[in-house]
Amino acid sequence: RLVVSLAAADLTRAEARLERLATRLSGAVRMDAGRLSGALAGRVSGTGGWTGLGAPRADDLDVVAAAKRALGDFNFTAPDLRLVLSDAGVSVGVGGEGMRLTTPTGARVTLSPSDAAPLYTAGRGAGVMTLEGGGLPEARLRVFSYQIEDGQASGRVGLDLRTDLGPLVDATVRTEGVVRTAPGGLIYRAATCAPFSVGRIEAGANGAEDLSGQLCPTQRPTVEIAGGDWRVNGRLRAGEGVVPFLQAEVGELAGDLALAGGCALEPHLLDDPLISRTDVTATERSAGLPRGGRR
């Protein structure tokens, strides 16, 4: 039986730092014809940080500033880390409690195992990640499968998200599709229409409430991120909501949608309208009091 204890401190590489790492693994390992095989399991914990997004700025959206603070200083623990050594290489998995990351700001991230595959085996894997607290979005990311080739990752994912983003308050979306990284960013293509809702859009007298509908994929990627800039593309279907300044409830909204932002993730409309004016149908469905409105 083999017992491995490892401790490290004050390791830094580019924007990442590892202040402390403690590992104790045990199991059975054997050497056969110059090849190692066996299994090890145990506990891993540590503290560290990553500043790749930069320091929080005054013009950051609240959720972006929260993400920067969480990534900049965190503790991580995997009570049941599992390593399997075989001809295929090293397989990495975690027990039912998963791997937990916590921050002084109250953010909590949990990486859990998937029934489909270990977290990592020979450049492939699967898993589930949840985020909550500390100003982070409430999110559940299901990585059904991923692969890493030539330094780039791609995979099939599903996301359930609830967050506030700039003028969008209590926004939710559920989507599944394919994501791949690219130099300086990533590209996501939704596989099907994604249902969404927004509690309200804070835009002064021109705001709106109780918005819902579906965002459907088009020929362009659904999400494009590159060099700190981002863009969301889609086709709005079955949109509806309340427009207080019109004292009306509108429905059957449809059309092409494009939203973009820069490094601070401040959303703005593109040169093409948010919704193509030539392809919008809207009906006032309120004969009396509109939902959430006034006479």
Describe this structure in words.
It contains one helix and 20 strands. The chain is mainly beta and 295 residues long. Strands 12-13-16-17-15-14 form a six-stranded antiparallel barrel.
Which structural category do the helix and sheet elements fall into? mainly beta
Question: For the report, how would you describe the main beta sheet?
Answer: 6 strands, antiparallel, barrel
Q: For the residues shown, what is the average pLDDT? A: 83
Name the poorly predicted regions: 263-295
Topology overview:
Blueprint lengths: L1 E12 L2 E17 L2 E16 L11 H11 L1 E13 L2 E6 L4 E4 L5 E5 L7 E2 L2 E9 L5 E12 L2 E14 L2 E15 L2 E6 L3 E8 L6 E9 L6 E4 L2 E15 L4 E14 L5 E3 L13 E2 L11
Antiparallel strand pairs: 1-2, 2-3, 3-4, 4-5, 4-6, 5-8, 6-7, 7-9, 9-10, 10-11, 11-12, 12-13, 12-14, 13-16, 14-15, 15-17, 16-17, 17-18, 18-19, 18-20
What can be said about this structure in brief?
The protein is mainly beta and 295 residues long.
